[in-house]
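agent> fetching stored inputs for the adenosine-5'-diphosphate docking request
agent> found them:
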Amino acid sequence: MNVSIKEKAQIKYSDPNQFDENNHTTEFIIEVQNLEKTFNDVKAVDGISLKVRKGELFSLLGPNGAGKSTTIRMLTTVLKPSNGSARINEYDLIKEKNKIKSLIGVCPQENVVFGALTAEDNVEFVGRMHGMDPADIKKRMNNLLEKMNIAGRKKPVKSFSGGMKRRLNLVMSLIHHPQILFLDEPTAGLDPQARRLVWDFIKELKKTGMTIILTTHDMIEADSLSDHIAIMDQGQIIAFGTLEELKSGSSNGNILEFIFSSKKELIKAKSKLEQITNVKSIREMENNKLTISFSGGIETLKRDILENMNSFKTLHFREDSLEDIFLKLTGRRLRD
Ligand SMILES: Nc1ncnc2c1ncn2[C@@H]1O[C@H](COP(=O)(O)OP(=O)(O)O)[C@@H](O)[C@H]1O
Ligand SMILES: [Mg+2]
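agent> prediction call returned; pasting tokens
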């Protein structure tokens, strides 16, 4: 593991002023320092530090086994850390466990439901455990079950599909108006339609000012929901930032793809591209395709290109994806 990458990832926090346009405060609601968890000799979480701002959506993105769930389980007081410390809303993770419990909502990676109970009874059970007033439970439950599109709410949950149980678990994690919501792979196992429903729902929750921490191995999910993303691998945070910061910190940056009608045209264009100073690298691909990475703004480059060459069939612009960034940092694909 490359220590310098890890150190860099943990020190760099973006300029708080950047956040003001999104109406986020700069106050940190979660502060984690050197958190560690060892199971026998497996270091599941290897000294991570992070800060989460009030009202933001913070994603832990990483492949299977990266240590995401173990991190969530420590922060939600299910697991005791082997080392390190954390404060949640100023409360100490170890010494003030009960205060933290009442502030947070948790949707664990594996669904936790009582199969013999109906959907409504499952939700009510959680509400009562949190000491909620029955009338308040009913009102909020109706609203949440409707939003999560859960039909058959008076049926035993054991008859539910996996996707329905997942959505029910989300409702259960929210019934008591938590200030901070932890979602461990919220959309794992959902079909595309349900996934979109959950994403829209999460965006709506964020608008109410709730702080949300989610884990995912799905870069599209991280990309579309997060304010900040911590990329986790082998128990460590290897990169951290807003999506833009992660992209601008990566070595390729932006990529243009050209397709030519013949090899001859491609070679001609290549020699012209080599003379454009903003062009950092050129790669010849199959089927008369050429990709270039470049620095600086796309507009200047486009002008240069259009002035100098006119032989391509198509021109396509794409930014580095989170997948590209992960690949560059680790040499592996996110899904491997
Ligand atoms: N209760 C446990 N006992 C032993 N090893 C565990 C336990 N929980 C997690 N691990 C190990 O810790 C590592 C991180 O797991 P986990 O936090 O579940 O990763 P992720 O959620 O990113 O997939 C894995 O190698 C996993 O096998
Ligand atoms: Mg997990």
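agent> quick read of the result: Residues 254-319 form a domain with the Alpha-Beta Plaits fold (CATH 3.30.70.920).
agent> awaiting further instructions
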